[in-house]
Amino acid sequence: MKFFAVLVLSLLPLWAQAAEMGERLAPWTLLDQFDQAYTLDDQAQILLVARSMDGAKLVDAALQGQPKGYLEARHGVFVADIQRMPRLIAKLFAVPAMQSYNYRVMLDRDARIAPRYPAPVDKVLWLQLKDGKLIAQHEYDNAAELRQALEQVQP
């Protein structure tokens, strides 16, 4: 039994490998802050992943003052990993606060999606996609730089 447990644990990193350049990202579905489902498809060109509250705050600061639909017009998708947040806090405070945002936040409540895209916890991971394939990857730890990068994307 110990051998089986060690074998399974040693194979876990292989199942959660990062996406490689040119690789097609596996589709997934998450609910946003309004409990509306979104499925990653070939239309997405930018995937922003925040693994912590600090990362999510960077995205929010970068999108401050932008009109509703700004991120979606750039075929951008924002995934926030909120699995470390206590469920009661998320339900009563955090998610209702997110409903005032002028952009969608795909909520990874159980860390099913965000771990597929490893990045430092305090940064925002930017995955550039074309036809569902990863073509570039960047990390941002500054809201002004993230905002500038978003402004360079043509809607």
Automatic annotation (TrEMBL):
Residues 1-18 form the signal peptide. It comes from the Bacteria. The keyword Signal applies. Keywords: Signal. This is FAD/FMN-containing dehydrogenase. It comes from Pseudomonas extremaustralis.
